[in-house]
């Protein structure tokens, strides 16, 4: 099993934002975590990674604890957060070099720059990149250590349609090569393009999980978007 989470909870003061969630990731899967803003998606990922205080019965990534075996785990795990911050004077190549020294072995970053369409930006300041270029750089850095598992939080925010589809294809290629992926997204077409299984959060709870077909069938709707809106009652809350 790639990932196992049992009864994990996250609280901010007296407010519980993730409430006793349990789930797992099997080999060969891409798992999508869906939910409106504030549903608990990012807090859940941060808690699983051990960077957000949490209470749980078990969290194991690639068979090890992200708390007690942190160095060993993160040699095999990549992370792209919703927001990435870089020093003002840092260039793209410097960002890649800085990330590279954190790991024992990495992919050649020049190869990845070409793969992600950033080869012409190597000497550019990160702060000068467009929002979409920064997003591609963040995903590139998550894949730099040749991880077995990668967490992608709001994968294609800021990308245009062509760039999104190109990134999806890149990730499908990585999946075929054996990469396991957990992603959060607000885009149903992205979820359908990439995910084998999804779980929908609302108010810190899992309200539905399964394959896309299973979730659609459970909702009684004809599409994933309609199923999502029905299950989360987002239309009703508008």
UniProtKB/TrEMBL annotation:
<feature type="domain" description="ABC transporter">
    <location>
        <begin position="3"/>
        <end position="228"/>
    </location>
</feature>
<protein>
    <submittedName>
        <fullName>ABC transporter</fullName>
    </submittedName>
</protein>
<keyword id="KW-0067">ATP-binding</keyword>
<dbReference type="InterPro" id="IPR017871">
    <property type="entry name" value="ABC_transporter-like_CS"/>
</dbReference>
<dbReference type="Pfam" id="PF00005">
    <property type="entry name" value="ABC_tran"/>
</dbReference>
<comment type="similarity">
    <text>Belongs to the ABC transporter superfamily.</text>
</comment>
<keyword id="KW-0547">Nucleotide-binding</keyword>
<keyword id="KW-0813">Transport</keyword>
<dbReference type="InterPro" id="IPR003593">
    <property type="entry name" value="AAA+_ATPase"/>
</dbReference>
<dbReference type="InterPro" id="IPR027417">
    <property type="entry name" value="P-loop_NTPase"/>
</dbReference>
<dbReference type="InterPro" id="IPR003439">
    <property type="entry name" value="ABC_transporter-like_ATP-bd"/>
</dbReference>
<dbReference type="GO" id="GO:0016887">
    <property type="term" value="F:ATP hydrolysis activity"/>
</dbReference>
<dbReference type="GO" id="GO:0005524">
    <property type="term" value="F:ATP binding"/>
</dbReference>
<dbReference type="InterPro" id="IPR050763">
    <property type="entry name" value="ABC_transporter_ATP-binding"/>
</dbReference>
């Amino acid at each position: 099993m790639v990932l196992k989470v049992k009864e994990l909870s996250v609280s901010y003061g007296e407010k519980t934002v993730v409430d006793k969630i349990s789930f797992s990731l099997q080999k060969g899967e891409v798992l999508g975590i869906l939910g409106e803003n504030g549903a608990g998606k990012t807090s859940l990922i941060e808690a699983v990674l051990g960077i957000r205080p949490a209470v749980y019965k078990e969290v194991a990534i690639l068979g090890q604890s992200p708390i007690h075996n942190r160095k060993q785990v993160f040699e095999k795990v990549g992370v792209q957060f919703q927001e990435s911050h870089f020093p003002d004077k840092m260039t793209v190549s410097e960002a890649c070099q800085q990330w590279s020294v954190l790991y024992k072995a990495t992919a050649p970053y020049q190869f990845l720059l070409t793969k992600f369409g950033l080869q012409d930006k190597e000497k550019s300041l990160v702060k000068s990149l467009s929002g979409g270029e920064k997003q591609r750089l963040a995903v590139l850095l998550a894949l730099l250590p040749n991880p077995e598992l990668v967490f992608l939080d709001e994968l294609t925010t800021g990308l245009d349609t062509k760039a999104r589809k190109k990134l999806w294809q890149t990730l499908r290629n990585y999946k075929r090569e054996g990469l396991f992926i957990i992603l959060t997204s607000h885009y149903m077409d992205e979820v359908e393009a990439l995910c084998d299984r999804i779980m929908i959060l609302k108010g810190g709870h899992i309200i539905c999980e399964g394959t896309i077909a299973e979730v659609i069938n459970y909702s009684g709707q004809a599409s994933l978007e309609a199923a999502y809106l029905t299950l989360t009652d987002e239309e009703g809350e508008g």
